[in-house]
Amino acid sequence: MTALDLTDATRRPFTGRRVRFGDVALQVVAGAAAAAATVLVGLIIWKVIDGARPAISHYGLHFVWRIAWNPVLGREVYGAGSFLFGTAITSLFALCLAAPLAMGIALFLSELAPRGVRAPVTALVETLAAVPSVVIGLWGILVLGPALRTNIESWLHSAFGFIPLFGDPSQAGASIFTAIIVLTIMILPIVSSISRELFLGVPPELKEGALALGTTRWEMVRGVVFPYARGGIAAALILGLGRAVGEAIAVTQVIGGGVFIHANLFGGGDTLASKIAASYQGSSTNLQTASLVYLGLILLVFSLLANISAQLIVRRVARRHGITRGGHA
Amino acid sequence: MSAQGLTGPGLRLDRLPRRRRVNRLMEGLAWLAAAIAIAILGVVVFSVAQKGASELNLNLLTKPPIQFSLTNAPQGLANAFAGTLVIVGLATAMALPVGILVAVYLNEFAPASIRNGVSMALDILNGVPAIVIGIFVFGLLVVGSGQSGLKGAFALSCLMLPLVARATMEVLALVPNSLREAGLGLGVPQWRTTLSIVLPQTVGGIVTGTVLAVARVAGETAPLLFTSSLVGTQTSWNPYHALQTVPVAIFELSESPDPADHARAWAAALVLLVFILIASLAGRWLATRSRTKMLAR
């Protein structure tokens, strides 16, 4: 920072002192705040590990795969297996639905939208991200779930019932399928707004060059925009996946609950996050509490991995583009 | 960089009609995707407005809920609205000063390596699922001593901190260096330059960031489930007690089998949604305004 160098150069002749109390005080206070923010991350990791310790020492890593959640005293046994399955199936399906939609939205906003439409549509898509998850969940369980059940689930079941994915429709509309749709809605804005920024960052001379070669707009997107933004899109998808995996409230409201692994998308289930949220009214034993925190630890590890890998990708891409773009940066 | 679309037989002129058709199809799909996103927002907002409006009256804001109500006495969610005001207010009071100081340190003092490290920590904090923040605060503060509004506010402030710090850093970076140099050149110490010349330039941006952060956490349920949710029906403003909040109330009512509870959940959702949409639209508007102002300077 040039400001720092300047102070060093300017203050000495006037004060004759090397160090000013105010400067040191502000730097110490602000530095302490920054240190506190960093320590907070460490504290979160430590406290979650600490809270899960009874379950870790009781079950070890086997907890992660065991399919069981029985809080009955005397026959207590806990495991994350079915919740891992529920998390994986809901968030991966949601990502598969959201990714093409988000790419379409981002392309529309960066390449196609007429001038007057662009700003309001961008604002609307970001407004979707502002809707609280509990409101999406309320809508999901009372409006979306029943609608999906009567219209889509029964139709898919009768038309493609031979595929195990499309089994008997859910009772009240609370199902893994509803959770997938809700998660799709929730990660759509984040993936599309990151992708939109990536697409806007593609150097115009590359796009114009492609168009001048006689490509259609879609060929230009496929040949120039996508390859240029590839790393960033991967990062956006990882962040969207992290968001879907960590979403607790809306999923708890619509997924129906249950400890089992089945292929039927229209049955109930639970994700790691929704199991934790559903158990908020207290648990009967310390082991159960520790097992819930263990679920949180798995979530935390996943979100750390997702975040760090997304950031590393972004940094690598930024560095590479910084070099290839040279003077244009 | 590879450019698969631009090589091979892709650009053949005799295939131009086909290529144009593909292009039109893809453009149409992009329009459709944008339309779907807007339609989803429209349907959600419309449902909440339609179902919430019927139960929306002053009782919702002023009357407490009644447990095991046998009569049709009017009841509302006054306890939840009071609790949300207290908890979000306290969370803002905790996150705002720390967030600003973090940003000041990173932008004005820190060497590049520390800046990268701390902003990575902020990004990680931003990515920690809200429910994990909830069990973190549960393990740190609630175990042994019980829930309280203050602990819920601390949980929310963990979510606000990275948002406020990031927003402040963005505007601090826009303050022209010439201002800092002018202050220092006049012999003003760096701490005064920072506090009375640089920071006042960023007030607009900080307000924007705070408004957006408030809009974000006012609707958060997950961090409060384990820190401030086991409550009675009486209205309380005391942050040392567990306080009911609007999101937690909606969450509980939505799980109830009683349609009357659903109606109140919709009404509360309508109030919450209107507040959050106004706050985030205002935040966006302020952001554009302060950015154009700063860039124009």
Strand pairing plus helix content of chain A: what structural class?
A: mainly alpha
Report the major sheet of chain A.
Answer: 2 strands, antiparallel
CATH superfamily of chain B: MetI-like
Largest sheet of chain B: none
* Global geometry of chain A: globular
Q: Could you name the CATH class of the largest domain in chain A?
A: Mainly Alpha
Largest interface, C-beta closer than 8 angstroms, per-chain residues: A-B, 110 and 109 residues
| Strands side by side in the biggest sheet of chain A | 1-2
CATH topology of chain B: MetI-like fold
Parts with pLDDT < 50 across at least 5 consecutive residues of chain B: 1-5
Give the oligomeric state of the chains in this entry, treating copies of one chain as homo and distinct chains as hetero. Answer: heterodimer
Give the fraction of residues assigned to helices of chain B. over 70%
Q: Could you spell the SSE succession of chain A in H and E letters?
A: HHHEEHHHHHHHHH
What is the CATH topology assignment of the largest domain in chain A?
MetI-like fold
Distance between the termini of chain A: 20 Å
Strand content bin of chain B: under 5%
Query: What class do helices, strands and sheet pairing of chain B give?
Result: mainly alpha
Question: How much is the average pLDDT of chain B?
Answer: 88
Query: Radius of gyration of chain B in whole Å, from Cα?
Result: 25 Å
- Catalogue the unreliable spans of chain A: 9-16, 325-329
Mean pLDDT of chain A: 87
